[in-house]
User: Fold this.
Amino acid sequence: MFVPLSVLEFRDRAETYFGDRVGVVDGDRRFTYRQFGERTHRLANALVELGVEAGDRVSFITYNTHQLLEAYYGVLEAGAVLNPINIRLTPKEIAYILGHAGSKVVFFHKDFKPLVEAFVADLPVKPRFVIMEGAPDGIAADEYEALLAGGSRDPLTPEIDENAMAELFYTSGTTGFPKGVAMTHRELYLHAMYAEIGLGFREDDVVLHVVPLFHVNGWGTPHFLTMVGGQHVMLRKFEPLALIQSVERNKVTRILAVPAIFSAVLHHSELSKHDLSSLHQLIIGGAPSSPTLIRGLEEALGVQTVVGYGLSETAPILTVALPRRFLTEAEPPERRQERQAMTGWPLPGVRLRVVHQDGTDVRADGEQIGEIVVRSNVVMESYYRDPEATAATIRDGWFHTGDMATLDEEGYVLIKDRSKDIIIRGGENISSVEVENAILSHPAVLECAVVSAPDKTLGEAPVAIVVLKEGATATPKELRDHCKARLARFKVPRDIHFRDALPRGGTGKVLKAELREPFWKGHDSRVQ
Assistant:
């Protein structure tokens, strides 16, 4: 008998077989899986009472909270589509996402009320608003707990089309406005299965959600950890000491985070004063890492540390640099740590190649560079309402990542650069074109180019090379302030340099590689 694949099965499994176990910890609040399940049922019924129908989009603007984790199941139980939003984006960008997604209901944490007030007037159609942990106070909104209290605890049984959209995430806007990544029930279900086979999470695992659940490095875990009955610990705001204390207090066993977070923890003065012996694995993703960071974390914490790789479009995890015993037994620890700092090798269910521009495979010699292409049941079917971008990215059945890498004889991939001029700052993708457009809107600027430069804390940072109009004047601070008014803070250039002209090739194109090279001189690759 055919049974459609749905991640709701994971919630139901946890509620049935791990009902009395504390499944969710959010500050002082603790919920067993039975309580968590009941809250998701109430949320589903409340959404239906609000008029939400099958396929409607429901957006969340919040930190990592138990409410957002509840939405991963309650929204889908109502037959709707979950859309977590990047809280670091500008009001203009969020308004675009809500309009593009056609969100019917928008949930927001009370701390983001000013953000909501800043963009609500720009929405083409005003959705229903629900505030979490606060009173409406001037904005027409329902209150989350009151909404749940009025919802039935009886589970809904929606008809699941496994090929229908279940979750909708928007990229960080690497080519202008963010693109919507539409994930189906089937893709999310199979991603959880593949990740579980590859990573081996267990019921006694306690995972700290430090990366925001709207982020590529955060949103797969709510499914595969729930599936095995593990415990979710929510960290609302990252601060190194808060993370360290949460690990000690909650006996956290695994953390998935970007390099900048682990680097900040590793170099925190209070690290050695706390008992973090419960940890047994750290997984670094969202940006390239280095053997130095891997080595530092393993030596300081005595915990296995590996790199993982994935994209918004792949649900997300594709590879993990887990050591293979038959390779590492005869190798020194330094070589093992070098391998664990690589991009990794594919999870079960993922077909990955590294290809030249003509589509032929590179030699598996760790030297030839090509683009990573993949095909898998976890790859998105399309960008939401964007057939042109879809056609440009998925060609001949292969998803083209835009990441340039080598492949060695043991099948380990190592990203060297990006085919597009994407800058990854602390795990956030930044479009150089978007930053350039912001700078060019200043009346004193004639032309500019934005490239990446190494950053000890965040891996990479954008820097701008600017040519001013003849007779015009501007200071770096003035241009950075100009950008701050138009861009999310993480996209603002760290440094601005002035030149009389930009180098150009024969076709008139700015030679960004030439501009970038001085910043990265002495570095083996674009990794810190």
User: Anything to note?
Assistant: The CA atoms of residues 135 and 213 lie 24 Å apart. The chain has 17 helices and 27 strands. The domain at 423-520 is CATH 3.30.300.30 (GMP Synthetase; Chain A, domain 3). The radius of gyration is 23 Å.
